[in-house]
UniProtKB/TrEMBL annotation, chain A:
PANTHER family: CYTOCHROME C7-LIKE DOMAIN-CONTAINING PROTEIN, LIPOPROTEIN CYTOCHROME C. Residues 40-108 form the Cytochrome c7-like domain. Keywords: Signal. Pfam families: Cytochrome_C7. InterPro entries: Cyt_c7-like, Multihaem_cyt_sf, Nanowire_3heme. This is Cytochrome c7-like domain-containing protein. Transmembrane segments: none annotated. Residues 1-22 form the signal peptide. The keyword Lipid metabolism does not apply. SUPFAM superfamilies: Multiheme cytochromes. The keyword Signal applies. Gene3D superfamilies: Cytochrome C3 (3.90.10.10). It comes from the Bacteria. It comes from Geothermobacter hydrogeniphilus.
Automatic annotation (TrEMBL), chain B:
Keywords: 4Fe-4S, Iron, Iron-sulfur, Membrane, Metal-binding, Transmembrane, Transmembrane helix. The lineage of its organism: Bacteria, Pseudomonadati, Thermodesulfobacteriota, Desulfuromonadia, Desulfuromonadales. This is Twin-arginine translocation pathway signal protein. Pfam families: Fer4_11. PROSITE patterns: 4FE4S_FER_1, 4FE4S_FER_2. It comes from Geothermobacter hydrogeniphilus. CDD domains: PsrB (cd10551). InterPro entries: 4Fe4S_Fe-S-bd (IPR017896), 4Fe4S_Fe_S_CS (IPR017900), ET_IronSulfur_Cluster-Binding (IPR050954). The chain crosses the membrane at residues 25-44. Residues 68-98, 113-144, 146-175 form the 4Fe-4S ferredoxin-type domain. GO terms for molecular function: 4 iron, 4 sulfur cluster binding; metal ion binding. It comes from the Bacteria.
Amino acid sequence: MRLFFICLICGLVLLIAGPGFAEDVDHGGDIHFKQPVVGVLFSHTLHVEELGLECDSCHEGLFAYEAGTAEAKDDFTMKSLAEGNYCGACHDGSTAFSSETRCAVCHEGVKGYKRALGLINAPEHDRK
Amino acid sequence: MTALKFDNLKNEGIENLPDRQRRNFLKLGFAITGVFAGGTILAVTSSVRRSFASSGDFLAQYPYKPHYGMLIRQDRCIDCERCKQACAKTNHVPAYGYRTDILERVRPDAEGQQREFIPVLCNHCNLPQCVRVCPTRATYKDRRNGIVMMNPKKCIGCLTCQMACPYNARYFNEEKMAVDKCDFCWEARLDRGGKLTACAAACPAQARIFGDLSRDDDPVHRVVHQIGRTVWVLRPEAGTKPNVFYTRG
């Protein structure tokens, strides 16, 4: 009987804590920046799961763990990115595409931001 | 009118018909999804040839002085909507209407970048269909600067201009009880000594360049009159000779 309970408790612990042991699922999800302009998407899914970056690639050297910390700073601007800060540390044209090109890859705009909040529906795809 | 007199009428041709009418006439039955996106696909061609060279006089000289126009550097738009906010504030545009808007085009299978934003506004056409169809001349082409103006006192709200406009640039303003539209900020800014429209001034990415096409040293004129970079207009098939140009790069 005691053995049964020990097994049951162990099983429950594994069931609850189990997902925590799996790698690379514990990340910040989608970050939608609102400052200095509305609608910039950073996807943890893309950068961590698909591109294989580690947490310490950006945290805490470029970005604090807490969302909204970079946005609150005055130098969180495109000019600063071009100087190699924040996203610009990788998006420099050699590690990843330059932050001065392909604007709408990251800039999802007010429309993208509203979609993230569930205020408007997804866009209809353009015909070919 | 008898049929006989009908025969003696001058044929105006189809180039001056409003786009929607003409499309019906030509029985082009395909559904256009995203009115403006449809235009841009057809419109990727040299603007000079398309919009002006069809009647050589436009290339030689612009009919107005100043001849206001706008260049939109499409790839720089990030849909931050600061232009829309600045426009609404400057021109008292209600939340249900707009004088300028931003369209979104998504191509999931595109390389590198799948999304593009396209700012749109009144194109202040040289052959404005809205002006042609207005029964009261409430909307007119200003002889001084080529801006397509509205006189709200004359507007009877028939919305024929909305139907005629290929660019969907007009809305009915319930406060004015008249159709309202972009006037390149003539009333709010240019006529009071301003040099830029509110949208162009508010753009953080210089996606909108406002200028005077009649001047050789004007930034818009210089981009339109070169061949190194593709410049196009939206819906050139409407034949209205718009004064808002688009480019990338």
